[in-house]
Design a protein that fits this description.
The chain is of the alpha+beta class and about 280 residues long.
């Protein structure tokens, strides 16, 4: 009888050990599954940010090219003016897409594009900015001067010009400036310089559209050493704006749109970085 009692107790203890081991193993598996799920959600958030940044680059532009040599960097923007109302419609449609994605994936995704809607388009990691509204673009710094040493502008307008003062480009100043201007009347290629702390405006007027004018603002408009192009009226203008400077940082840049992504314990918030090393 004693032997049967011992066997019974031993069996019960063995079953308890097996049960405890099974529960511990299930808990461990749940923790591992939760860790895998959270890692997957974090990856999903990162992928969504990358995809959104690429979507904005494709929808809105401009094309941005960054190159570097041993002593200086070049940033080129390829853009077009005027913009019309298409950008606002694209933003509205993309907002609807984000809301639909959020509902279908049981996530909380929000997009704040108010800065972009107010013309604050691209921000660089070193404080440089590229703004654009329907009629103008501007390259400047949000703090201090741009520290640009040279600019090269290539501009084409699809109209005949009535008059211009680009040919009288100043030759004095610490920032080099080259303008390649072309329209239906011909070409102007001029080189000069400007004072980064004083604003200078160069303009072109057109014969078939008296209310239209192209303005190139250089100097202190926005910040020391900035440059901007304005196209007033209906004349279409394509442009390349290249800024050169001794910027030693990575020159990462993002669209000035703040996005928040939350799903379970995964969360990510920030700007839409197109190039971030």
């Amino acid at each position: 009888m004693r032997r049967g009692f011992v066997i019974t107790i031993s069996t019960i203890l063995l079953l308890m050990v097996i049960l405890l081991f099974s529960q511990a193993n299930q808990n461990r598996m749940r923790e591992e599954q939760r860790a895998v799920m959270e890692a997957h959600l974090i990856d999903s958030a990162a992928y969504f940010f990358d995809d959104a940044a690429e979507d904005f680059r494709s929808m809105l532009g401009p094309a941005v090219e960054i190159s570097r040599n041993s002593s200086e960097s070049n940033i080129t923007f390829r853009d077009r003016l005027p913009r019309g109302g298409g950008d606002g419609l694209l933003l509205s449609n993309y907002g609807e897409f984000v809301a639909d994605y959020s509902n279908k994936t049981n996530s909380a995704v929000s997009l704040n594009s108010s800065n972009l809607e107010n013309g604050r388009l691209i921000v660089f990691s070193n404080g440089l900015r590229y703004d654009r509204n329907s009629t103008s673009v501007r390259f400047y710094s949000s703090s201090g001067g741009t520290n640009a040493t040279a600019y090269e502008l290539s501009i084409f307008s699809n109209a005949y010009r009535k008059g211009e003062n680009i040919s009288s480009l100043s030759k004095t100043g610490s920032v080099r400036l080259t303008i390649h201007y072309s329209d239906l009347s011909g070409n102007r290629d001029v080189s000069g310089a400007f004072d980064p702390n004083a604003e200078t405006v160069y303009s072109v007027n057109y014969t078939d559209s008296p209310e239209s004018a192209l303005l190139v603002r250089v100097g202190s408009s926005g910040s020391p050493g900035s440059v901007g192009v304005e196209q007033n009226g209906s004349v279409q203008t394509d442009m390349n704006v290249t800024a050169t400077g001794g910027w030693s940082c990575a020159l990462d840049y993002a669209y000035d749109v703040n996005m928040s992504y939350r799903q379970l314990n995964a969360a990510k918030e920030g700007l839409l970085w197109v190039r971030k090393g």
